[in-house]
Every structure is written in C-alpha cells, then in structure tokens.
Amino acid sequence: MKRRLDRTAPRRLVDRALRRCLPRPGSVPPTVRRAMLYSLFPGGKRLRPILAIAACRALGGRLRNVLPSACAIEMIHTYSLIHDDLPALDDDDLRRGRATSHRVFGEAMAILAGDALLTHAFEVVATHPRGGGLDFRKVRATALLARAAGVTGMIGGQVMDLEAEGRPYSYRTLARIHRGKTAALISASVEMGGIMAGARPATLGALRRYGENVGLAFQIIDDILDREGSSARLGKTAGKDLRARKATFPALLGIPASRRRAEAAVREAIAALRPLGVRARPLADLARFILERIN
Q1: Which residues pair with 99 in a beta bridge?
Q2: What's the half-sphere exposure (Cβ side, CA atoms, 13 Å) at 13?
C-alpha cells in the first residue's frame, strides 16, 4: 500500500511558529505589520521550512532548535515573492490565490513589507532559540542563509533570469540561473536543518546534494505548470513565463524531456540520502511530492 505524506500538520506547525516570531502588535507601525501578515498568511506549501524541520528530525535534532531557522527561511521566501510580483520585475496581480501585496497596500508599502521580512528573518535566525549552547550553530546557519539569499544565491539567480529574457540560452546557463534563483534557498533549508541538529560535514554534504536536486526538480515542475496549469490551480498567473520569453526548461527541452529531467533529479536527490538510512524517509517522501504536482 502506498504511504501518503501528511503535509497539513507540518504546515500548521510552521504557521504557529511564524506568528510567534513576528513583531508583536504595537511594537512596529501597524500598516507594515498588516502587509507582512497578508503575504505570510495563508501561506503556500511551506516546503522550505518543512524541509528544514525534516532534515533536523532525521538527524535526531530537536524541533525547538530548528523552528526559528525554518521561520526565517519562509520569511525570506515570502519577501522574495512580494518583490518578484512588483511592476519592475514580474508585474503580477495574483499570488497564492489572491491579489498581490502591492495591489492591496501599494508599491511602497509592499517594498517595505518585503524589506521588513528579510531583515527580521536574520534577527530570528541569529537570536533564537535562546540559550542552550547553540551560538556556533546559529552563526553557521545565519551565514549560510545570507549566502543562499544574496547575490551568490537567489539574488544572483534573479539577476541572470532577468537578463536572459528574450535571449538565446544554453542548458548550462539555464541550470546556473535556477541553481541560484530557486535551488539555493531550498538547499540551504535542508542544510540549515542539519546544522541545527549538529550534523557532521559529510552528512551536510549529502543534505546539500539532496537539496540541490530537489531545487532543480521543483523549478522544472514549476516551469511545466506555468505552461500546462491554470491560474486557479497555481494560485498565480499562468503562462507568464512564455509571454515574457523567460529562460525555462520546457522552452529549451520541451515538456516530455523536462519531465524526465525532473524525475532524474528526484532520483538523484533520494540517492543522496542513502548514508542517512531509514531516518531520511520523510525527506525522500518530500522529494517525491515535488513530482506529484504534475501527476
């Protein structure tokens, strides 16, 4: 009998932790706090924080140690979506099934809400959990998150993605774009879970390889769904990549070859988990879930 992956309980766990991590009412201007809450809730799949939690648990780490890092990751992911949707970038009106932040609060407040989530994320990961002798782990997790979200990771990938619009590109260029734009934060999520569990370098290397392949598969599936999915199913405007002449896997390889490449990436991700044994089964299930989105 095929096992089903329960995704609702981890999402609820992340949502509760996110609410605890946010600035309290009255401590910040209410408008920007409303804009932060609007984009964070209701959330999407919460894939990145759930990956961090699953990696930490697979290595015997404590949930309380990884939850702040998981929340910080989701805040940074949400900030990136707010800014991606702005008129200067993707210019979208729909995100997670409703109006984008700048359509509700205006461009200036949306920019500031994104900035607030980004900066608050680093305060959370650097200072929580308090005590417990975890300072060195928190420093390592903070540095990794900064690299993954910055110009050597997500921002760098977004720059290359923007510059590739409407231009010829190779598979190597496409892979490089999405290693930064998408896979960097996904891979960091898994590795941060390992760091907060006290993982050794070899184990962190296995988690990194897993995360990089999961990130690649996720982006390929996202590209396919932009072509084949509906706006109602995606929660965002479908077909925008094609209209914007973005560098995508289906545009370069076609749909069937893109599906095969996503399946191969998931197999490589699961293979990377072999040194962890049966304790990594939830991570393998999460990798398979990526493919379920097109089945």
Answers
A1: 94
A2: 18
Q: Which residue is it, tokens 């590739």?
A: 164
Q: What is the pLDDT of residues 78-126, one digit of tens each?
A: 999 999 999 999 999 999 889 999 999 999 999 999 999 999 999 999 9
Distance, CA of 86 to CA of 163 (rounded, Å):
17
> Under CATH, what is the fold of the domain 8-292?
Farnesyl Diphosphate Synthase (1.10.600)
Instruction: Give tens-digit pLDDT for 157-203.
Output: 999 999 999 999 999 999 999 999 999 999 999 999 999 999 999 99
Backbone angles phi, psi at 34, to 5 degrees: -60, -40
Q: What does the domain layout of the chain look like in residue ranges?
A: 8-292
Tell me how long the chain is.
295
pLDDT at position 2 is 45
Cα(268)–Cα(215) distance, rounded to whole angstroms?
A: 12
Task: Kindly report whether the global pTM for this prediction surpasses the value 0.90.
Answer: yes
Chain Cα centroid distance, residue 215: 8
DSSP secondary structure string for all residues of the chain: -PPPP--HHHHHHHHHHHHHHSPPTTSS-HHHHHHHHHHHSS----HHHHHHHHHHHHTT--HHHHHHHHHHHHHHHHHHHHHHTSTTTT--SEETTEE-HHHHH-HHHHHHHHHHHHHHHHHHHHH-S-STT-HHHHHHHHHHHHHHHSTTTHHHHHHHHHHHTTS---HHHHHHHHIIIIIHHHHHHHHHHHHHTT--HHHHHHHHHHHHHHHHHHHHHHHHHHHHS-HHHHSS-TTHHHHTT---HHHHH-HHHHHHHHHHHHHHHHHHTGGGGGGGHHHHHHHHHHHHTT-
